[in-house]
Amino acid sequence: MKKLQCSLILLLICVCINSVSADESNVNNPESSAKSPTTNLWQGFYAGINAGYGHNAGNIDARGAGGVKSKDEEHSFIGGIQVGANRQYGDIVVGIEADFNDSQLEDSESIYADYGYAEDYYHHDSKVDWFSTLRGRIGYAPHQNLLLFVTGGAAMGRIESKSRFEVDYTTYDAWDTSWSSSARDTRFGGVVGAGAEYSVASRWSVKAEYLFVDLGTKTNVVNGTYVNGDAKTYSVKNKGQFSTFRLGVNFRF
After folding, report:
1. Which end of the chain is more exposed for a tag (fewer CB within 10 A), N or C?
2. What does DSSP say about strands 44-56 and 68-89: parallel, antiparallel, or unpaired?
3. What are the distances in angstroms from CA 253 to CA 13, 14, 122, 151, 220?
4. Cα 246 from Cα 208, distance rounded (Å)
């Protein structure tokens, strides 16, 4: 995954440099500029790549686990590909876009409880392995080369969650015990966002975009039994919500 992430970032940088160079050559070449379209700049099909980071915050909520909570919210790399199509009506642009993204977004929560005779430890992890969206877009072009847009639609992704419980008796180590559970499931939800796209050459454009993805809430129930026979049950709610901030490059066909 790290090789894929580095490759996407390097490819994004190279494409941006190439796009700017192509634009400068058009400016220095009057004949090329004359041949560039001046209307319906955003019309048609396009494909591209994106890279950025995501924030997965406060998604874990353990019920029935008393004690002091601590959270670890991580910012992580995301990157992927997108394809889409636009129709332009004067300054108004409407379209549809689909994307698929690799993700390393993680969120974790730890809980510690000290009862004097025993100490309880809870640890929960949530990770977004990948996500994909299918969105409509509507935008406004205040200038020929600039497009401001809002977007929204459906999302899906795979989330992996893990829970572990440990009890450590201070006076009788033989009663120490632990148990764990894990789940991995593909979820469906929604996505909304906004961004801006700028045409840097006749067929190339760069964009900056924010998306908020909600893949729904799932509750995992963790059941266990102490060595002395007492049962223990608690539930972990995972909301599957995260924000992404990304840059991208598109090529229009």
Report:
1. C
2. antiparallel
3. 21, 19, 53, 22, 46
4. 6
Indicate whether this model's pTM tops 0.85. Answer: no
Q: Of 162, 163, 161, 217, which is closest to residue 187 (Cα–Cα)?
A: 217
Q: Are 74 and 211 in contact (CB under 8 A)?
A: no
- CA 129 to chain CA mean position, Å: 9
DSSP for 20-40 reads HHHHHHHHH-HHHHHHS--S-
Structural domain of 167: 2-252
What is the rounded end-to-end Cα distance, in angstroms, of the chain? 30
Burial of 105 by CB count in 10 Å (0-12 exposed, 13-18 middle, 19+ buried)? Answer: buried
pLDDT > 90 fraction of the chain, expressed in percent and rounded:
43
d(CA 3, CA 221): 36
Could you tell me how far CA 233 lies from the centroid of its own chain? 31
Helix (H) or strand (E) holding 187: strand 177-199
- Report the C-alpha gap between 212 and 241 in whole angstroms: 8
CATH of the domain at 105: 2.40.160.20
Instruction: Provide the domain count of the chain.
Output: 1
Total residues found in the chain within this entry: 253
Q: Within 13 Å, how many C-alpha atoms sit on residue 77's CB side?
A: 14
Give yes or no for residue 101 having a pLDDT over 70. Answer: yes
Please tell me the distance from the alpha carbon of residue 206 to that of residue 76, in angstroms, as a whole number.
22
pLDDT at 135: 98
> Is beta strand 231-238 parallel, antiparallel or unpaired with respect to 218-225?
antiparallel
